[in-house]
Amino acid sequence: MRLTHSALALALAFSFGNFAHANTLACSNSYGFRVDVSGNTGATVCSNTSSDLIDLVKDFSLSNSGYTQSSAAFAVGRINDVDFTASYAANSNDLVFNAPDLGIENKVFTGATRKKAQDAFEDWVKHSGIIGDMMRYQSKHSAASPITGAAGIMPTMAATDFNTEIQSVSNIATTPSSSTDNKESTTNADATPINNLIGTGVSIGSFSNNGERINSYTLPLSYSIGTGDDSRQQLIISVPLTMYTIGKAKGYHAGVGIAHRFPITQNWTLTPGVRYALTGSVDRATIASVTSASLTSTYHIPFEQFDLNIANMIGHYRTGKFKAGDYSFDPNIKQTMLRNGVMLSQPITLGSQQLAIEYSLIDTRYIGGQKPFMRDMQEFGVTLGTHRNNNSHQSFLRAGVSYVRAKDNNGFTFNFGYWF
After folding, report:
1. pLDDT given at position 391
2. pTM of the model
3. How far is CA 410 from CA 51, 240, 307, in A?
4. CATH of domain 154-419
5. Segment Disordered: which positions (predicted)?
6. Whole-angstrom distance, CA of residue 95 vs CA of residue 111
7. Is 278 buried (19+), middle (13-18) or exposed (0-12) by CB count in 10 A?
């Protein structure tokens, strides 16, 4: 089972590490390794994937050809941005493990052979919770975290929750026109009957993180079901599927969400939602489940030549316990996120096509005591698509681009959507 192999990879990597003494690893990547034998410095290898690290820890001689089973050895490494070392004294089978980033110092594992000492260490990894501790540390210290970093599962879930609601005030159609599209209408009596809509598309993100390139590819599937006379009143089921890459490493997010949009007044809507998702990557030695609950408010302010829309969201996201083979762990990451935005919408005509162009500014920030490394983020976007008053169409298109900036991270997202 690949999940079990990923967890085993973590155990193997940690069984040769510490960050004590004056030894450091000359490496800016999330993974790295070097073995020093009897004072002779080995070769340093840096990588974006855990598999490269595992090959090295299985065979010390790949880093230092002078290593033997009785050598005095000192290994320095990094896995998921956690620095570690481990050492063997000459002619000793005692493995001394240190990971000060996780509060672990001089943990000793003994055995009749070095292989037995490593087996003892693996048993400890299965039950100590160190894997979850490592994921939590990475979340707080790296923009490359698969959970809270660029293209991470939590910001991806938050963006999906927010976009589900802001579409209700967008003049770029994702529903048929309603009474709210007519500025002179004051009741829902004139509302256009609602059709259920299937939504699909693609979202591509590309970000720079301290020299590393992070790319994401999302397929945002959705199904909207009208539940009232007002077209804004809908039950929305969304199933976003994401693949991300960090260098040559790959990872995946998948989840399902349910939200219900409630019109409160002519211009105000509220949308509560819940979501469950999984993220997994053998290359990044990470797997976790995440659940969330969110509440989003939108307010529509019509003007003569344009519309101004204000959206505010609060969401709570938390990881859950996950079991893979004999390994059981929970990163215990709990985040509360605020996502606030304004959108200016302007109707335009190209040929005979009635379209809308929209300009948006969105600010995302975490609140509470467990803020991640990327604790706030800003997005500036432009979108063009079919105007919702274009009733000659039974399908609708939209396409846009956004510039995204955050701590040690910036990039662009490109979005295309189709509803029918």
Report:
1. 55
2. 0.86
3. 27, 23, 29
4. 2.40.128.130
5. 173-192
6. 9
7. middle
